[in-house]
Amino acid sequence: MSGSNRPFLNNDLPNDHDDDSFEIGRDDLDQSHTNFGFLRSGRPSTSSSHLNLKYLLDSPKKVTNSVMYFYNEKLIPNIGLLFIILSQFFNSIMVVATKLLETDPEFTEPIHPFQILFVRMIITFAGCYAYLKYIKKDVEIFGPREVRWLLVLRGIVGFFGVFSMYYSLMYLTVSDAVVITFLVPSVTGFLAWAILRERWTLVEALGGLVSLFGVLLIARPTFLFGERSSSGNDNLETSNPEERLVATMVALVGVCGASGVYIVIRKIGKSVHSLVTVEYFAALCVIISLGGIIIVPGLSFRIPHTSRQWFLFFALGISGFCMQFLLTEGIQREKASRASAMLYTQMLYAIIWEVIIWHHFPNIWSWLGIIIILGSAFAVIYYKPKEIKIDDNENNYSVLSNHDDSSLDQSPVIRRTRSNTSGISLDDYDENDRNH
Q1: DSSP states of 286-339 as a string?
Q2: Residues 72-88 pLDDT 10s
């Protein structure tokens, strides 16, 4: 082929410049394409000596996206469980204050549980009433008329749940009485399934049983592990088998009362402010405990006479108020079975206080129980069911758990139920929504 007719090659181009800008071969183009590909992917080129600024700018965004994903997908859907876990922290403070008051050598005679319950509920009631009266003025102090009977019922069953625990401590060791109360999650899950028609998943049921096993490893009650499993100073409060049997039966009544609290609060739902529910509970406990102090022979009201005792009473009331508020907020947002499963975390707080105040360090069995309880709690949180219960007979939709947006944008009726997680029947849809 003659030189005039053949096509131009790279080295045939006119070179009127001093640089090599036109001296680009196929291999150079391939290498250039590779370099630009690294730029498009947001990563620095391996052949470049300069740091890719875009990659550095994208890294904080990826971290922020991960944090926001955890916040939106894990934290917010489980905020009710977090409230309950925090409530158990305040409950542990309340228990510690109660124990210190009952064993205070400054008192000539131990303070009766009636008085401790009375003082605690006086402070709780005053805090609820002041908040609702002067801060949250748009809330009815006594609640809507149609649910007042449920509020009274919540106060009554709540009192039996608390008082039965105190009574059982008179004849049972602390470990025995505490372990009996951990039957609450299993009883609550069954009652919620039977009464409220809430789903009780296999994970929740197994999580409750496994956590109960962890509690048994920590407490090691004498009626299961025998006398040798307990420490040498854990003497029985009574050796009379009849008294122990009665105390055990009363403790089981307390389990039913504590489980009933979850069911009643779920039935009330979010139609009532959480502090109104706590207010009713505190008021009824004040009335009943005051009546007990007056009626029971030999009981008298003992006034604190040291700054330490006043501080313990004050801590008892404040922690009791915070515990009831957070517990009610959590139950309103969660299924009863999942909410009650978080009660096992109070054993972890109890061990922490045992180490800090009484210098009782847990042994290998206690550490194993802690790991089991934490693992079960995380499993219940992680495997949260996402479904909507539909009642075909009444055309009502009720949300049993939090959902992602994709599962709620299919129907206007279901979308209207996103803010209602209390299990209350929604009958206020307009005719267009029902016929959609």
Answers
A1: HHHHHHHHHHSTT--PPPP-SHHHHHHHHHHHHHHHHHHHHHHHHHHHS-HHHH
A2: 666 677 788 889 999 98
Pairing mode of beta strands 396-399, 388-391: antiparallel
Element (H, E) at 260: helix 241-268
Could you tell me the CA-to-CA distances from 135 to 130, 132, 182, 272, 319 in Å, in that order? 8, 6, 36, 16, 20
Q: Where are the domains of the chain?
A: 77-382, 389-434
Tokens representing 320?
């009791």
DSSP state of 192: I
CA 171 to centroid of chain Cα atoms: 31
CA pair distance 174, 138, nearest whole angstrom: 43
List all residues 6 or more positions away from 362 whose beta carbon is below 8 Å from its beta carbon. Answer: 218, 351, 354, 355, 370
CA dihedral sign of residues 409, 82, 381, 60: positive
From first CA to last CA, the distance across the chain in angstroms is 78
Cα 369 off chain centre by: 19
CA 38 to chain centre: 46
Kindly report, residue by residue over 312-362, the tens digit of the pLDDT.
888 988 998 898 889 888 888 887 777 777 777 777 787 788 788 878 777
**Is residue 108 classed exposed, middle or buried when 0-12, 13-18 and 19+ CB atoms within 10 A define those classes?**
exposed
- How many whole angstroms separate alpha carbon 330 and alpha carbon 36? 53
